[in-house]
Amino acid sequence: MPAPLLRVDDLRTYFHTADGLVRAVDGVSFALSPGETLGIVGESGCGKSLTCLSLLRLIDPPGRIEAGSRIRLRDRDLAEASEAEMRQIRGNEISMIFQEPMTSLNPVWTIGDQIAESVRIHRRVRPAEARARAIEMLRLVGIPNPEQRISSYPHEFSGGMRQRAMIAMALACDPSVLVADEPTTALDVTIQAEILDLLAQLQSRLGMAMVFVSHDLGVIAQIADRVLVMYAGQVVESGPADAIFNRPRHPYTEGLLRSVPRITTRLSRLAVIPGGVPSPRRWPPGCRFHPRCPYAWDRCQDDSPPFAEAEHPSRCWLEIEPQRHVGGWTTTAAPEREV
Amino acid sequence: MGTRPGAGKLGQPLLTVENLVKHFPIRAGVFARTVGFVRAVDGVSFEIRRGETLALVGESGSGKSTAALAILRLQEPTAGRVVFDGRDALKLDRSELKRLRRRVQIIFQDPFGSLNPRMTVGGMLREILSVHDLAHGAAAQKRVAELLEAVGLHAEDAIKYPHEFSGGQRQRIGIARALAVEPEFIVADEPVSALDVSVQAQVLNLLADLQERLDLTYLFITHDLSVVRHIADRVAVMYLGRVVELGDCDSLFSKPLHPYTQALLSAVTVPERGADRKRIILTGDVASPVSPPSGCPFHPRCPHPDKDEICRTEPPSLALHGAGARAACHKIGPAAGGSGPKS
Amino acid sequence: MSKSRKNTEFGAAGRLAAMLVPGLGHLWRRQTRTGVSLIAMTAGQLSVLFLALDRVVATLTAGRLDYWVALLSLVVGLGLTWGVSLRSLRVASHGPAHLSQWAIAWREFKRNRVALLGLYLMVLLVVATLLGPYLTPFEPSVIGSDIAATRHLAPSLDHVMGTDKFGRDVLTRVLYGARISLAIGFLAVSISITLGTAIGAASGFFGGAVDNVLMRLVDVLISFPRLVLLIVVIALFQPSLPLVILVLGLTLWPSSARIVRGEVLSLREREFIQAARALGLSSPRIILRHIIPNVLGPVIVAATLGLGNIILIEAGLSFLGFSVPLPTPTWGNMINDGREYLVEAWWVATFPGLAIVLTVVAFNLIGDGLRDALDPRLRL
To answer: How confident is the model at residue B335 (pLDDT cuts 50, 70, 90)?
Structure first.
């Protein structure tokens, strides 16, 4: 296994609000190798987007990356870097693409201006060279007639084309890590398929590593090499994608996989994870998943389970007492309760 | 459908839609001259039998939501016929329309946006009951409790405001509101699209339970084919304002006829590894409904190898291909079952 | 508008004619409205040049600033008309490939005839103000030797708007008064908009303590009764043109700061700002390149509506005698002058009053038109 390119250790991003402490990201660790795709999957409010923003240190007050969090890119600790250093790193070594292609481009400048801007900032090149690079990037992401489309404004592009332009912008300076935060969620399925295909192609051609965040297990199954499953600000399970999807260890992963309707099979009723996603202001004590877990016993309410350093770890007491892994998921439309 | 007892014997058409058209004029200038039309729905026909679920599937801009609004007359259709339980819904007078509105209800995608934030859930439900003269006073109180329990909430929740509920609970309230008038037919417009994955299953199961208990008929509008597979008896696939394929759920998923349906199905991701599914990657974007392509609306993106002049010039009709399967494509042979990408 | 000849190339002679006479090329292309306006503008300016040729010649020797301003405007105006015509011809013959937000806004604005009427009125007013000395043969503040014979003459061909109690031509004074009103309006609005945008943008973008301090300052300034504040400040010093401009400019920025702050707060959450940060752009660069251009729409609308407002306030101040001192004509002090003679010489107060109404209406029409044209729904 090659040396990790990016290594995150105990990342904690807390919000110090007037109503108290919000532990939005609470001890996330992972390593990313060159050329690898790490999928982060979880529901709304589990902290996956904030994990992404933390990697680029784009957290605004009252949010803060807590002391002791480490984000090592090669041999630099980004958690310790100055804001000026971070500006050099963003868009240059780590780039990010966002969910909403409709609002992630500035409506007043042309597509070409916006791609060239990031090149001009990070590489001291003449405007003509930056423009040439912009054209090259647009061609790379599969936009036809890049010489003409470079003078288009965002409103002249469709959603899929804008997402392609965003990708061109993010990759213009050859970053070694691309952070993609739900990049296909706002797109139609056929366009989503085009973009996923494009990202996979670009990755094999350019060799960048990718952190790909999605709430959609299907998308993650398709694109990720390794997967982090997040729940309530923590990683509850991580491992190679094949293992996660074929042999899930954590009850939450198991429940998610059973409750998602699939196109390949028809069930009369889906399995149900009772209740709803907890609020980050009040994580449940003990194991954060215990109020919704069909296997939970008293130990789960009191103590938070350990998360071992392993190939395929799971943050669950079932790891210690596997004999309790019996019974499980119902299909009744059980009422959702506040947890 | 074998999976749903009772669906077969209730097979009379409840709703028949014939050649429904909804064009939005594009106006310009001071005198608002009409300079063009958005052909949101451009000749849609289907029928829904009592007790079944018809899913109307399509990507953004396919006109699926507009079709639903036009059927409910929340937007007046430009042309076409909508026959509900033997009566032409487009020719009803006011009082008849009000009676019809009681029998037909809608559930929206955004449960929060569709609930009045300044009204308690109980107040909202009681208002509906009294407007339709269904229950008053203590009877209304009792009915509200019943409704909330039917959708998996508690009677005590009646005194809460919408913001006190989570997304999934709000969608349950939206469903309770639709059920309040004891409808026969429910139009569900992307009812689970805004919900978390783990909550989505709860609401889908609830909708299925209610259908069974109350003999409801659903028109289920969604872009998510995985959900369709789970909930629908029959499926209509829309593209640029037209139905391109219409058929039984199982046969449509196992043997899609239209190239667009094939591409759409192949683009759906599955949370499985190693599933060897052939993917069809389309190129280009959906054309604008302002100037739809001539001939077959799908021809600019169509990956079919035999695509030719007739696709560019002749709009195909929704022809019958085998038992219960209809598709609008020139390139499907007379023998049913075209060559799908999947087994 | 037929587009049949839009892309036809002209012959050599046609091209020469279109280049020499602004608007001719547009007529040829059947862009009648643009063509007629361009020809009318050229003809108007040329006729001023020839009808007032003696005064144009006198400019060279008179050594008066307003004459030079008029001459310069005439030359620049003719040049601009010609240049705009050539440019729009050239653009049209290639066909506009990509429409920027501003081009879309202008297209929308042009569709709104009422707003366009406001724009025509304003252009007419500005041109008339600049060309004032060439348009009337009279002096605004010189009192004739025979007041008894020239005072309170009713409107006639010689004095289109009559004369006042000192026998001065009212039209001339209205034209010169327009200078004061427009100068105060434009300069004060520039000051207040610049300040307001800078303060609002900083407040919205940085948030926190910066925002708190700046917005409390805004609250304090807004809660003062404006007219009283203006009168007190002006009364403390000697009223003069620069003072009035400065005071108006410095008291009117809070409302635009609020507008800008609100816009910036919502912009800051837009993903392209996040994307800009993720690309490594610095805060000043994000504010200048990504935030300010996106708030200009509402700012321009506020500025246009503010212009009308400032002209009204100035008229009120000078009616009360708190603005530019006599004998410099302002619309406000002219109305004040004519107030006593409203019955026997109604024209003295009526025409400056009409001028105020027309100007303010013109700016409001433009502002409303801009508001629609810059509608964020069009910005996608």
So the answer is: very low
- A188 neighbourhood in chain B, CB within 8 Å: 59-60, 223, 286
Q: What is the pLDDT of residue C334?
A: 80
Chain A residues whose CB is inside 8 A of the C294 CB are: 106-108
Q: Is the peptide bond before A154 cis (omega within 30 degrees of 0)?
A: no
The pLDDT > 70 percentage for chain B reads: 90
Can you say whether the dihedral through the CA atoms of C45, C48, C50, C56 is positive or negative?
negative
Find chain C residues with C-beta within 8 A of A92's C-beta.
Answer: 280
Subunits in contact with chain C (3 or more CB pairs closer than 8 Å): A, B
Please provide the average confidence, as pLDDT, over all residues in chain B.
84
Q: How far apart are CA A264 and CA A251, in angstroms?
A: 23
The residue among A273 and B286 whose pLDDT is bigger is: A273
> Are A248 and A237 within 8 A, CB to CB?
yes
pLDDT of residue C377: 55
Whose tokens are 């783990």? That residue is B198
Chain B residues whose CB is inside 8 A of the A257 CB are 271
ipTM of predicted assembly, 2 dp: 0.82
Rg (alpha carbons) of chain B, rounded to whole number = 21
Out of B181-190, B281-290, C98-107, the most confident range is B181-190
Q: Which of A200, A191, A189, A170 is nearest to A39 (CA)?
A: A200
Residue type, A217: L
Q: Would you say A314 and A236 are in contact if contact means Cβ atoms under 8 Å apart?
A: yes
Asked if residue B280 has pLDDT above 50, the reply is yes
Rg of chain A, C-alpha, whole Å: 21
Return the sign of the alpha-carbon dihedral for residues A237, A243, A248, A249. negative
Token couple for A118: 């990031």
What is chain A's mean pLDDT, rounded? 88
Chains that touch A (3 or more CB pairs under 8 A): B, C
Amino acid at site B304: H
Which candidate in B157, B160, B163, B230 is best for mutational testing of the A interface (most A CBs within 10 A)? B230
Cβ atoms within 10 Å of A80's Cβ, excluding its own: 12
Is residue B288 less than 8 Å (CB to CB) from chain A? no
Among C111, C113, C114, beta carbon nearest to B28: C111
For residues A105 and C290, what is the distance between their CA atoms, to the nearest angstrom? 10
**Do B282 and B263 form a contact (C-beta atoms < 8 A)?**
yes
**A220–B contact, CB cutoff 8 A:** yes
Show contacts of B307-310: CB within 8 Å, 24+ apart. B307/B331
Kindly give, in sequence order, each residue whose CB lies less than 8 Å from that of residue C173, ignoring residues fewer than 6 positions away.
Answer: C140, C164, C329, C334, C352
CA B147 vs CA B172, B202, B219: distances in Å: 10, 17, 21
Q: What's the rounded Cα separation, in Å, for the pair B159 and A306?
A: 41
Identify the closest residue of chain B to C109 by CA–CA distance: B29
Within 21-60 of A, beta carbons closer than 8 Å to C belong to: 53, 56, 58
For B274, name the nearest residue in chain A, comparing CA atoms only. Answer: A242
Please tell me whether residue C160 adopts helix, strand or coil conformation.
coil
Instruction: Give pLDDT < 70 ranges for chain C.
Output: 1-12, 90-98, 141-145, 147-148, 375-380
Q: Which two tokens stand for residue A12?
A: 């904690």
- Rounded to whole angstroms, the Cα distance separating C216 from A121 reads 37
The beta-carbon neighbor of B202 closest among A191, A246, A333 is: A333
- Long-range Cβ contacts of B320-324 (<8 Å, 24+ apart): B321/B257, B322/B251, B323/B251, B324/B234, B324/B247, B324/B248, B324/B251
Which chain B residue has its CA at the smallest distance from A332's CA?
B205
